[in-house]
Recover the amino acids of this structure.
């Protein structure tokens, strides 16, 4: 037993060993045997990247595959046209597996180790969500087939979740009640390592800050104008000074999306897009109040008016030691993979293009690492799900070590066999873990006990205002 396993995790895994035996090698072989169409689908989604709320083709492919496997499909969850739930079976336990499939703007890239956009300025799967949704679907179908073979009761559910990249799609699905009846939910994410997750990620809040002033000739009558851009710049100066006086693990980053029409016109409108992050949801709430004060100060000093629109917000991730240890165990059973010579050459070119002289030499075996315990500086709306139901989360190595997410480098890898090998590690570990939960209801109870312990005295509240609706595009 690994040294990081908690007492609660020890109890749960001991209970697992006494449950109905799961033939892990047989299940792994079955997942591999049915992988062909899913690998092809991951490439098809990669070739047709769609931004958040617009994942019509990607979600349709996943629904078609799951429907053909005998899953019941419920669409338009929470009023989101690309959100869906697919399930098979009935009764308890109800185990869910999360899938994502949205792409990122501006990261179009060929499956080549040098910058080569497929479509200039187009979107691309720089976070590997083409692999994410597909691996999770493969795991769900494999679990369904195992339940039939083992004659086990329960329900396996796939969550098709749109717009994780800044839209907080899962928050709207939570508000529609999509997750609350699940006993356990499992998730993964593409990355550069294979490991179970034991970190909180960062809660975040994303907003548009709009300043309204008064236009005038910038040379002939500047005194008649009130510069919206001045208000915005005073705000950003105050935000940058604020960095010194908030917890060091916080993050604040912004872009100016509108700064005026012409240099000889005092801008009557300016807009800022800002994201603020912290590992704790309550602390983030306090930091956000101070950021809003910076905006109000900018408006007051410049004689302008400011409006703030919250676009999205994510909660931090509530870790679950029972599910962490379960995923870790099954990752080790699954094992990593070995790079072919061609894959190793591709990976080395990707790493060289990063310009990081401190990367260690490439190890061509993708090993299983100890659970990730450091606080990650990124955010995910899986965190919101973890506040309402026990969630286990893991990473799989779809990119060479050192490759950053949200880059053309990761987009390139997500379209290759290297990415698909990592996808299969995730699919197999998820299938094993979900099957373990069905074989042993006591393990499900232990995961719930760990969840209840973590949530004692806490209550989930999204920072997205109640009643706010996402800006959905027209259906094509």
């Amino acid at each position: 037993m690994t040294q990081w396993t908690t007492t609660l995790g020890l109890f749960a895994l001991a209970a697992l060993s006494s449950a109905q035996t799961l033939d892990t090698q047989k299940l792994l072989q079955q997942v591999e045997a049915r992988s062909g169409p899913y690998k092809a689908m991951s490439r098809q989604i990669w070739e047709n990247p769609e931004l958040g709320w617009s994942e019509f083709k990607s979600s349709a492919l996943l629904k078609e595959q799951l429907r053909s496997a005998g899953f019941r499909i419920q669409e338009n969850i929470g009023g989101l046209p690309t959100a869906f739930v697919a399930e098979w079976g009935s009764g308890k336990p109800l185990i869910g597996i999360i899938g994502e499939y949205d792409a990122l703007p501006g990261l179009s890239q060929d499956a080549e180790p040098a910058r080569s956009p497929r479509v200039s300025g187009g979107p691309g799967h720089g976070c590997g969500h083409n692999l994410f949704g597909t691996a999770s679907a493969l795991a769900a179908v494999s679990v369904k087939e195992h339940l039939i073979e083992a004659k086990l009761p329960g329900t396996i559910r796939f969550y098709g979740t749109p717009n994780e990249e800044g839209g907080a799609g899962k928050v709207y699905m939570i508000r529609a009640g999509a997750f609350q009846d699940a006993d356990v939910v499992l998730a993964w994410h593409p990355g550069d390592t294979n490991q179970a997750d034991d970190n909180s990620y960062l809660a975040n809040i994303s907003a548009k800050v709009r300043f309204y002033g008064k236009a005038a000739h910038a040379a002939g009558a500047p005194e008649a104008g009130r510069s919206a851009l001045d208000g915005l710049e005073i705000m950003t100066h105050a935000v940058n000074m604020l960095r010194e006086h908030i917890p060091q693990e916080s993050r604040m980053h912004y872009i100016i999306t509108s700064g005026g029409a012409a240099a000889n016109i005092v801008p009557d409108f300016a807009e800022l897009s800002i994201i603020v992050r912290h590992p704790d949801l309550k602390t983030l709430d306090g930091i956000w109040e101070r950021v809003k004060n910076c905006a109000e100060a900018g408006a007051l000093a410049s004689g302008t008016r400011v409006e703030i629109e919250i676009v999205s917000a994510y909660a931090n991730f509530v870790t679950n030691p029972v599910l962490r240890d379960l995923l870790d165990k099954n990752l080790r059973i699954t094992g990593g993979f070995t790079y072919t010579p061609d894959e190793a050459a591709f990976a080395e070119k990707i790493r060289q293009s990063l310009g990081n002289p401190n990367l260690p030499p490439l190890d061509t075996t993708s090993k299983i690492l100890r659970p990730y315990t450091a606080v990650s500086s990124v955010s995910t709306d899986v965190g919101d799900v973890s506040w309402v139901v026990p969630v286990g989360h893991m990473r799989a190595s779809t990119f060479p070590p050192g490759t950053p997410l949200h880059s053309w480098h990761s987009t390139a890898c997500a379209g290759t066999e290297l990415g698909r090998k990592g996808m299969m590690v995730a699919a197999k570990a998820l299938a094993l873990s979900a099957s373990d939960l069905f074989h042993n209801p006591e393990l499900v109870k232990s995961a719930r006990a760990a969840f209840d312990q973590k949530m004692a005295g806490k209550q989930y509240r999204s920072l997205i205002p109640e009643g706010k609706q996402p800006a959905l595009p027209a259906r094509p």
The chain has two domains: 7-201+317-455, 203-314. Confidence is low (pLDDT under 50) at residues 1-8, 14-19.
